Amino acid sequence: MLEIRSLDAWYGESHVLHGLNMDVPEGRVVSLLGRNGAGKSTTMKTIMGLMDRTRGEIRYRGENLLTLRADKVARLGVALCPEDRGIFPSLSVQENLMLPPVVAPGGMTLDQIFALFPNILERRNSRGTQLSGGEQQMLAIARILRTGARFLLLDEPTEGLAPVIVQQIARTIHEIKAMGYTVLLVEQNSHFVEGIADLHYLIENGAIVDRLEGAEFKRNIDRVDRLLGL
């Protein structure tokens, strides 16, 4: 269980997270939904120890992550798949996969990764510049699975992708959850997370404004879309 309590964060003098509270249960998929600028990506960066000015607590495996450097957070099995995917364009798929070190026990082998991502296997010798957006997203997720991460932070994984690729990403998240992984999923696409996440948090102006279980989310999807501006 990841527990966030009274979390504040600043970019310079700008106060961007305001007393944020949320829980991410072990082995569940949790969505964090909000408009651009609502504080979604900042929440992810704060969990990973990438924000300089913070206040509050993020408890995970007996540690307050706010007191740890980013490398220590990673060694607890937490990994961020950023919105820009972070693929190295001059490296091949396999080189991208092998570049990050294994920092926690239980990382996937290449055979396991290729079984989960057959498209990546087909492109294993292709350079990053030769991959489609969907292939880059799958590679970005695959790369953090090899490092030993069991808690995945996925930042806007469907951004800019064709519907057929979005469906592939959804299937991948379902499979990862079935393997016992925990996922915090940042999105603006409410209809994508509706069939994936067990629990949904809505964020606005750096604060959680609602918490909805799966059945509640479906009943309130129109209200959620209004908050997201859809």
Brief digest:
This protein has 230 residues and is of the alpha/beta class. The protein has ten helices and ten strands.
Secondary-structure map with pairings?
Layout: E1 2-11, E2 14-24, E3 29-33, H1 40-47, E4 53-60, E5 63-64, H2 70-75, E6 78-81, H3 93-98, H4 110-116, H5 118-122, H6 133-146, E7 151-155, H7 163-178, E8 182-187, H8 190-194, E9 199-204, E10 207-213, H9 214-219, H10 221-228
Parallel strand pairs: 3-8, 3-9, 6-7, 7-8
Antiparallel strand pairs: 1-2, 1-4, 4-5, 9-10
Brief descriptors of the model:
alpha/beta; six-stranded mixed sheet; four-stranded antiparallel sheet; 10 helices; 35% helix; 28% strand
Q: What would you say this structure looks like, in words?
A:
This protein is an alpha/beta fold. It has one domain: 3-Layer(aba) Sandwich (Rossmann fold), CATH 3.40.50. Helices cover 35% and strands 28% of the residues. It has 10 helices and 10 strands. It has helices spanning 40-47, 70-75, 93-98, 110-116, 118-122, 133-146, 163-178, 190-194, 214-219, 221-228, and strands at residues 2-11, 14-24, 29-33, 53-60, 63-64, 78-81, 151-155, 182-187, 199-204, 207-213. The strands form 2 sheets. It has a 6-stranded mixed beta sheet with strand order 6-7-8-3-9-10, with helices on both faces. Strand 1 (2-11) and strand 2 form a beta hairpin. The longest helix is centred in the last third of the chain and has 16 residues, at 163-178. The chain starts with a strand and ends with a helix. The mean pLDDT is 90.
